[in-house]
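Just wondering, can you check both lines?
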Amino acid sequence: MYLCDYTKTLLLVEDDDALRSRLGTAMQKRGFNITSASSVAEGLRAVRANAPDYAVIDLRLQDGSGLDVVEALEQQRPDARAIILTGYGNIPTAVAATRLGAIDYITKPATADEIVDTLMAPKGTRPPAPDAPISPDDARFEHIEQVFHETGKNVSETARLLQMHRRTLQRILRRHQVVKDAA
């Protein structure tokens, strides 16, 4: 784990209030001076006002794409180190993020230590291969669980968004003990 001092500024752009608050507190404890934003518009204003040393930016925000904030930060301060943090990881957006200036693309859930390690890693270093890569079934379930929580644990809405039958979703959630009674 890398530690830094309060001269290191970090822009945190995340539209989930609870996650933004928890991650902001965790990053502050790790020595960052935090500026928080809950939208692309707020993130762009923060970059224009005082471009930070580091940024952790959600990909999908209520008012657009976090890639717009990455691009603005790259133009304003090319030496800044930004990462995209998302629950909707895919290869095309990862490639776009790095082309626009992000140093990495991390899928949720990620720990504050993983984020700090990524931000503070020396330029040009490559992350080690995972000790225990996630299985496709586990990755699928993590995605299902993410969508389930984003819908306020609404089974019908989650099933619609995932384009699956409601009863199939209920069985998956019960199997993983996410819901006690999803009937």
